[in-house]
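Design review, sub-item: ligand-bound model
Attendees: FS, YL, KQ
YL presented the inputs for the N-(aminocarbonyl)-beta-alanine complex:
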Amino acid sequence: MTELYDLVIRNGQTVTDKETLKQDVAIKDGKIVALGENLERGIREIDASSLLILPGGIDAHCHIEQKSSSGIMTADDFYTGSVSAAFGGTTTILPFAAQHRGQSLRDVVDDYMACAVPKSVIDYGFHLIISDASDAIIGQELPAMIEDGITSFKIYMTYNDLKLDDYEILNVLAAARREQAMVMIHAENHDVIRWITEKLLDQGCGAPRYHAIAHAQIAEKEATHRAISLAELLDTPMLVVHVSSEAALNEIRRAQKRGLKIYGETCPQYLFLTIDDLDKDGMDGAMFCCSPPPRDKESQEAIWEGLIDGSFSVFSSDHSPYRHDSSGKLAAGPKPTFDKIANGVPGLEIRMPLLFSEGVQTGRMDIHRFVAVTSTNAAKTYGLYPRKGTIAIGSDADLALWDPKKQVKITADAIHDNMDYTPYEGMVSNGWPITVINRGRIVIEDEELKVDRGSGQYLKRQRPEAAKPLNRLVKEIDPKTNFNAKFI
Ligand code: URP
Ligand code: ZN
Ligand code: ZN
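KQ shared the predicted structure:
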């Protein structure tokens, strides 16, 4: 007898962003080809009784094999990073191809491709980081990269070697609007941070906890407001990344209420860490320094609320793996002041399990919303839907089979990245994805990696529907007092 399917998953419940169904899933040539009851046999069969079948996660913000603007290399390469992601239920990663000033975007992408192709075990695409907004980059190189399928990019309002001024941001937004690419923005007011940092250091306040004082909530709120204003001026959709505070969240909410295409992203560190973590003994607080920083308990609550009520559409790790040693956090010396500590925390593997545990299992977050923020919305926001981010006939067979009863204690040793710490040491996750499938390939099973290095595929992405302008400039703005869309 010849089997019709490569793989059939039986007796489980499929969960998408919209519904939960008791149905079997049949896979052939990497795609979902049938859904329903009494499906014919497959070459391989999995019994998913008591398991939940969710779309594989999409981590749309992670830094892998990336050199920071101050020259520090992440501890994870595309092998360890992708393996760690897969163990946590993620089947697609969208890390950054980061331009340092003076570099051509084509060269940057070629370099990241050369790193990823032989190593990634799951599918991947890239966002660009644009640090050089010269006419040649924005006018010629960027459109060519977008045409090639890199349909989103990140810009910064802070960090000396990355920040763009408002004039440059406008140029970039205009290009994104023309090309229908998604702009991601790191919104913190550079001069506010610089000014407070100087005052703190003058007073001898250099310990890690002062990082959170220097990166004041008001710096995030002001920059978020300004970024949204610039995007509104040019009618360009935009996503504000790694939002940490209620004040910034409220800026996003206000824009959304006014009908603007402004999206928000938040991350595990803003749900599970606080400023108190930066206040740990000695240099241990350095392990929790990221920008924006974790805030207080009230902010945590507000960020949870934003994730539950739909103000945030995407939940990403912002995995920034700098080890707690001289290769990473302490590259500037054994006791650097906070402004010299490499920014970022790891989180690729725990992103989904901790949200599942503390959100879904506690009854706080609906499971469909969990699927939306960890997978479906990222696919929609970044031009991968419906190939990724759902369970539907014709979609890639990217699935995570979750055991809601499996308890996992999170420790640095248990996590599969190349880090020497996890900020979530000792937390227990109630529920874990035990079988992880990417394009029909079983990537993780029985707590083991089952695929080869380099077996992940590069994803050339569509122009996202979410990045389509509203076309309000011509229709709703008086051309006598404001400029007209034809000027951009
Ligand atoms: O602290 C952080 N988030 N580091 C990573 C770089 C970035 O800005 O996302
Ligand atoms: Zn950032
Ligand atoms: Zn980041």
